[in-house]
Amino acid sequence: SKDNLAIEVKFGLDNTTDKGTIDGESTCKTPMLENGVQGESGGEGKCSKDKWMTHPAFLAFGGNGLWVGKFETSYTNGIQIKPNITSYRNITLGDSFKKSKEYNKDLQSHLIKNTEWGAVAYLTQSIYGRCTRGEGSVTCSEVTQNTNGSYYTGYTGNTAYSGLDNAQLASTTGNYSGIYDMNGGAWEYLASFMLDDKNVNPMYSSIGLTAVDLNDERYFDLYKYGTSYANWDRRILGDATGEIGPFAVIGNTYTSSIYNDMTYFTYSSYPGSARGGCVLSNTSVSGIFALYPPDSSLNDQSFRITLAVQ
Question: I want to staple 209 with a disulfide (CB 3.0 to 4.6 A). Which of 17, 111, 204, 226 is the partner?
């Protein structure tokens, strides 16, 4: 198992290029930029060991950071991002994409992309998240599941978010400043779509969108066409999918080597993506590294909003 494998993270203000250094450290180009389309999968990924790469989540909007919704999105007289209220479900992937963009256009709000979820997952599995270093060893802990049967946000297990110490266990950072509901709760849609069998246009009609909805490539990731949920060579380096192998089958579920999270890649039958797991149907395999193509069971699917602050 790679549960205790800490991911190395370095913070900086500059983007990496083909050659060069940042703060004296060797760098390499972010592979996703080689394709000509922001966020398209299949970059060569020739980033060798001991070189630093700017994470793709920070490239699309030209800023140095992102604001990620602290909880799954809720709806009570309008969209809210608060704890201890039921998450916004019974909504399609297409509608969640559109409503996320309408939330705050000034701050370029949008449905979280797979690459952005990957950035959060990496930070969680680092010393800035749920890992601590001792003498010659590293210890990482999985984000505690939200197991509330009514899909209430911010829960630790089945205990409401209260700001007390036990509530920190469900945070990506192990403290109050982290992000919640990324393990359990409802499956969360991603603004990450698969291209058609010619790898030309997104399969937008299958997810309730049009070409007009997808006229700005900054707001979504694109994955090359595939007919199997096990085609991991279609990943984007940085989306926290391809590196979570080797994979195994536990029971009837395809799982990764990090926390045995469920891992089914987007493919022709289900060209969308969702992450985090649904605790009611997949308790043992929910997790921040879980990945699944959403189907027509809208009751267990929600979404998360991200802001691209300049």
Answer: 204
In three-state secondary structure terms, 231 is coil
Q: Where are the alpha helices (DSSP H) in the chain?
A: 93-103, 114-124
Single out the residue of 9, 91, 64 nearest to residue 305, CA to CA: 91
Instruction: Give the pLDDT confidence of 230-271 residue by residue, as tens digits.
Output: 888 888 888 998 777 777 777 778 888 888 888 888 999 899
Write out the two tokens for 156.
Answer: 């630790």
Beta strands 221-223; 192-194: pairing state: parallel
Reported as a pLDDT band with limits 50, 70 and 90, residue 285 is confident
Among 283, 269, 288, 188, smallest CA distance to 231 is for: 269
Please, what is the average pLDDT of the chain? 87
Instruction: Quote the tokens at residue 242.
Output: 């391809």
Using the structure block, give the residue that is written with the tokens 């979570």.
244
Coil/strand/helix, residue 32: helix
Q: Which two tokens stand for residue 308?
A: 């691209």
CB neighbourhood size of 275 (10 A): 31
Half-sphere exposure of 174 (CA within 13 A, CB side): 13
Distance CA 303, CA 96 (A): 7
Helices (H) and strands (E) in the chain, counts: 2, 17
pLDDT in tens, 18-34: 566 777 778 887 776 65
CB atoms within 10 A of CB 91: 17
Name the helix (H) or strand (E) containing 223. strand 221-223
Cβ atoms 178, 246 nearer than 8 A: no
**From CA 202, how far away is CA 302, in angstroms rounded?**
22
pLDDT reading at 294 higher than 70: yes
Q: In this structure, what DSSP letter does residue 94 have?
A: H
Please tell me the distance from the alpha carbon of residue 83 to that of residue 79, in angstroms, as a whole number.
13
